[in-house]
Specification:
Length: about 425
C-alpha cells in the first residue's frame, strides 16, 4: 500500500514539474513506490502457493504482458487528449489502485518456529547482541571506535537483510544471479529499438506499431497456457525449470539475429512471434527458478539483491545500444549484440547448473541431520514400552522390569518422554 501511494504521488507530482531536474526527483519517488509494490507481491505469492507455485508465478506474469500491449496505447491516447501533464495525472490515479491490491492481501500465520532460522540469521543476530554501553562510556571511546561500531552494525544489517552471503555460500544462486544480470543487458533492448528499426528501413509507422501489438498479444495468449503446463504434477520437484528457462533464453537470443537479417514485415512478424513465445516462458519461470534456488525464508533478500543487480544492466543496456547505433549508423548491429548477450546467458546457465547437478550426484545424497536412534535395553520379565514421540519422530523402545514409567535415553537433551512398561506377571 505504501508503494501504491509513493508511485501514484510520484506521477501526480510529475505533472507539476517545471524542469527536468524536478522530473528526476519525482521519478525516483515513483520508482521507489514500484519497488515497494513489486517485491512484496512476489514474495507473498511464494508464501501463498506451495504445490502450484509455478502455476501462480506464470499466471501472475500475464499482467506484464497485458501492460506491455495496452499501456503504450493508453499513453498515446492520453497524450493526445490531455497532454503530458494530464497524462501524468491519470496514470498517477491509475497507480493508486495498487493500494487497493495491497489492502486485499493478508499475511499468513506464522507456521515456523524461531528454531528454524538459518545459520546466517543466527550468526547475524549473535553479532548484533552486543552489550549496550552508557553515554559516558561511548564518549570516551572516540571517533575511531564509533566508526568501527557503525561499520560492524552495517555489516550485521546487510547480512541479515541482504543476500550477499548467498553469493558466497550458494553456488546455484550465484550462477543464477550472474546469468540473469547478464541477460538483462540485452533482453529489453529489442523492445525499445524494434519500431525505430522498422521505420528506418521504410516501414510505415502503423505497421511497425502493429508488431508491438502482436508481441503483446502473443504474451497474453501464451502465458496462461504456460501457467497450466508448468503447473502439472510431473514438473513439481523435477528441477527442470532452470533448464527450460535457459533454453528459452537461448531461443530468445537467437531470434534477435533473425530480426537483424531483414526488415520486411513478414520477417519481423515471424521474429516477434518467436520472441514473444520465448519471452512468455522466461517471464513465467523467472521467479519460479529463484524460489527453487533459495529457501523461502531467504527469498525476499535474494530477490532484492538480484533485482538490484539486474537493474544496473537493465539501465545501461539501451544507452549502450544507442551509442552502437550512433557509431555504426545501423540498427541491425544492436540486434546482433542482443543476440550474443542473451543467448550466451542461456548457455552459461545450462553449463553452470549442469555442472552443479553433476557435482551433487557425485557427492551423493546430503547428509541428514544427526538423529539419535531409539535406545533399546533388553531386560528380563518385560515385554515392551512405547514412547509417544522422540527426536526424529520415531518411537523408542525401553525394556525395564516391573516399571510404570521410565525416561527414554534417546530424548536426552530434548523434552522428556514418558514410557509405559508392560511386564510379565
Amino acid at each position: 500500500m505504501v508503494g501504491g501511494v509513493l508511485s501514484g504521488l510520484g506521477m501526480v507530482v510529475s505533472a507539476l514539474a517545471r524542469t527536468i531536474t524536478e522530473l528526476y526527483i519525482t521519478s525516483i519517488i515513483a520508482g521507489l513506490g514500484f519497488c515497494l509494490s513489486f517485491q512484496p507481491s512476489v514474495t507473498m505469492m511464494g508464501h501463498y502457493f506451495l504445490r502450484r507455485r509455478a502455476f501462480a508465478n506464470a499466471l501472475s506474469s500475464t499482467g506484464t504482458a497485458l501492460g506491455l500491449s495496452t499501456l503504450p496505447l493508453l499513453a498515446n491516447f492520453l497524450l493526445g487528449q490531455f497532454g503530458w501533464r494530464g497524462s501524468f495525472l491519470v496514470l498517477g490515479g491509475l497507480l493508486l489502485n495498487c493500494c487497493v491490491c495491497g489492502a486485499v492481501m493478508r499475511p499468513l500465520g506464522a507456521k515456523h518456529s524461531g528454531a528454524q532460522r538459518t545459520l546466517t540469521n543466527k550468526a547475524a543476530q549473535g553479532l548484533s547482541k552486543q552489550p549496550i554501553k552508557g553515554p559516558l562510556q561511548q564518549e570516551k571511546e572516540g571517533l575511531k571506535a564509533r566508526l568501527r561500531t557503525a561499520f560492524s552494525d552495517l555489516v550485521v544489517f546487510l547480512r541479515r537483510h541482504m543476500a550477499f552471503d548467498l553469493l558466497v555460500s550458494n553456488p546455484r544462486y550465484r550462477a543464477y544471479a550472474l546469468g540473469v544480470t547478464w541477460m538483462m543487458l540485452g533482453f529489453v533492448v529489442p523492445l525499445v529499438y524494434l519500431v525505430p528499426y522498422a521505420t528506418a528501413n521504410g516501414m510505415e509507422q502503423d505497421r511497425a506499431a502493429l508488431l508491438m501489438a502482436v508481441l503483446g498479444l502473443v504474451n497474453i495468449a501464451v502465458r496462461p497456457v504456460a501457467a497450466v503446463f508448468f503447473g502439472l504434477p510431473r514438473f513439481r520437484g523435477s528441477g527442470c525449470f532452470v533448464y527450460v528457462f535457459a533454453v528459452a533464453l537461448l531461443v530468445n537470443g537467437l531470434s534477435n539475429s533473425i530480426c537483424g537479417a531483414a526488415a520486411t514485415f513478414s520477417v519481423l512478424l515471424i521474429y516477434v512471434v518467436i520472441f514473444g513465445l520465448s519471452m512468455s516462458v522466461i517471464g513465467s519461470l523467472l521467479f519460479t527458478v529463484l524460489m527453487e534456488t533459495v529457501e523461502m525464508s531467504r527469498f525476499p533478500s535474494a530477490l532484492g539483491l538480484i533485482s538490484m543487480l539486474e537493474s544496473g544492466t537493465l539501465l545501461i543496456g539501451p544507452p549502450l545500444a544507442g551509442m552502437l547505433v550512433d557509431s555504426t549508423g545501423h540498427y541491425s548491429y544492436v540486434f546482433y549484440a542482443c543476440s550474443v548477450t542473451v543467448s550466451s546467458s542461456g548457455l552459461f546457465l545450462i553449463a553452470a547448473f549442469y555442472y552443479l547437478d553433476r557435482q551433487k550426484k557425485r557427492a551423493g545424497p546430503p547428509a541428514a541431520a544427526y538423529q539419535q536412534k531409539p535406545a533399546i535395553s533388553l531386560v528380563p520379565d518385560c515385554q515392551y514400552s512405547h514412547v509417544p514421540s522422540t527426536q526424529g519422530g520415531k518411537p523408542a523402545i525401553s525394556l525395564v522390569p516391573d516399571c510404570q514409567y521410565s525416561h527414554d535415553p534417546s530424548t536426552q537433551g530434548e523434552r522428556s518422554a514418558d514410557t509405559v512398561c508392560v511386564t510379565n506377571v
